[in-house]
Structure formats: C-alpha cells, structure tokens
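protien #1 (seq + structre)
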Amino acid sequence: MLTNLRYPHTFIQFSDGSFSKVMPLSSYLRMIMQFYEHLDTHHSIEETYVFPVLAQRMPSFSNNERHKNAHKVIHAGLDKLKGLATAWGKDPTTFSPTVLRACLDEFKTPLFKHLGEEVRDLSGENLKKYYTLEEVDRLPM
C-alpha cells in the first residue's frame, strides 16, 4: 500500500524550478499529473477495497478515522496542485515556483505523515495484534 517515497521527493525537490536543468516544464508538469493520478487511484483502491476489510478489526481504518481523514486533507492539496499544473500547461508563462512550493507545502507534511502511519499500522508487529499469518495472506493487498 505504501507508494514509492522516492517519487514525491523527486517532484518536491524540483519545485524550486531546478527541474529546468534536467527536463522541460511540460515534462515536469506531466510528472506532477502522474503523481496526482497515481495517488488518486491508490487512495480510491484503499478506500474501496482495503480499508473496509481492515476496519473490521483495526479501528484506525474505520470511516472518519485517521487514514480516511488524512486522505481528505491530502486530496484538498492534490486537487489544488492538479488545477495549477493544468493552468500552467495551458499557459507556461504563468508558471511560478513560489506558488508551486506554497501549494506543495500545504499538503506535504500530511502526505508524509500519512505514509508513515500506514507503514506503522501495516507493519508485521501491528498486524499481529489483529490477524493471524494465514489471515494476513488473504487480505486484499
């Protein structure tokens, strides 16, 4: 369930405009849109198929609990990011690293906090509290 942590770091690292040393703006904006689509799909799968199963035994995956609430916060920032990337794609002269960085800063901390919480909550040690090994093998992950 954990997304590749290197990928978000890549586009966040380049958000100061330094991406222009290695790729054109259009490629960087495509990277942002791919990140949006990847994370949106990832969260949709989790909320539709994985969280309901985990919530049967693990309270942190219940409706209105930590993981779903984190998704809401993250998606508010992601939706803003998508809007900015779309606008910059239509008119590249309006691109602003400062605006991009401010947008990323709004949801970067909740995103990485959420990823860390998922790693912790889905660790073997934590899963042992709720499931047998055989049950873990049958989980939809």
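ok now protien #2
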Amino acid sequence: MGNYETPAEMVARHVSEGEKHLAHQTALIERLRRMGLPTEEAQALLERFYLLQAQHEEHRQRISEECEFGLRDRQGNLLPRRRQRQKR
C-alpha cells in the first residue's frame, strides 16, 4: 500500500496484482510440465490464487454497489451512518 490509497484503489490494486499472480503461476506450471517435473503443489497453489482472486473481485463489486447505494463516497470510503429519527 502506498502512502495513502482509498479502499477503491486498494481493491483495484489487489485485483490487478492477483491477475499477475495467476498468469505467473500458470506459466510456471507450464514450464514445469515441459520439463517433466511434478506440478501438483504448483497446481494447488494456483487453485488457491483463483479463490483469492474471486474474493478480491467480490470485494471490488461490493464496494461498487455500496457506492451506488450511497454508503460509500467515490473513493470507496465508508460514509457516516445517518441516524433515523425515532417516531413517537
């Protein structure tokens, strides 16, 4: 994380970095295969990366929806909750 990044910037970075990890791990598995080396552990790690990537993408979607509903500002920061008046 930089000096300061908004929640929206952070989740965008996580998604971007996750895509790079997936590509790198996929290439590594292919290299291992071509060399005739075992790929089971690398494949298991790739599956974990896919699960993490799905979580990052779900987080990005949730922040986007919360912005649409007025729960977050454009940068993805949570807005203070408005108190509802109690009916008497």
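The first helix runs from residue 7 to 34.
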